[in-house]
Amino acid sequence: MRKLLYAAAFLAMACGGGDKGAAGGGEAAGGAAASGPMGSGSITGTVSFTGTAPANPVIDMSEEKACADKYQGQPTDPVVVVANGGLANTFVYVKSGLPAGATYSAPATAVVLDQQGCLYTPRVLGAMAGQNIEIKNSDPLLHNIKAVPTVNRGFNISQPQAGMTSTRSFSQPEVMIPLECSVHGWMHASVAVMSHPFFAVSAGNGTFTISGLPAGTYEVEAWHEKLGTKTMSVTVAEGAAAAADFSFGS
Amino acid sequence: MSARIAFLLAAAGSVALAPVLAGQETAPRGKAVYDKWCAGCHGDTGDGMGEAADYMLPRPRDFTRALYQIRTTASGELPTDRDIRRMVDDGMPGTAMPGWKTRLSEQERDDVVAYLKTFSRFFEGGAAPAMVDFGKAPSGSAEGLAEGEATYRKLECFKCHGDAGRGDGTSAPTMTDDWDQPIRPADLTENWHFNGGGSVEEIYRRLRTGLDGTPMPSYSDALASNIVTDEQLWRVAQYVRSLSPERTPQVREVIRAERVEAALPAGPGDSAWVAVERFYVPLVGQIIVKPRWFAPAVDGVWVQAVHDGERLAIRLSWSDPSVSPDPAWQEWLERLGQAMTDADGPPAAAQGPDRITVQFPLALPEGLERPYFLGGDVKLPVYQWRWTSMPDTVLEGTATGLGRFVALAGAPAVTHSARFDRGQWQVQLTRALAAPEGALGFVTGRAIPMAFSAAEGSSGEDEFRGSVSAWYAIYLDVPTPRRAFVLPIIATLLTAGAGVTIVVRAQRGRQAAPHQPEGHS
Question: Any residues with CB less than 8 A from the CB of A185 and at least 6 apart, and which?
Answer without folding.
Answer: B171, B174, B175, B176
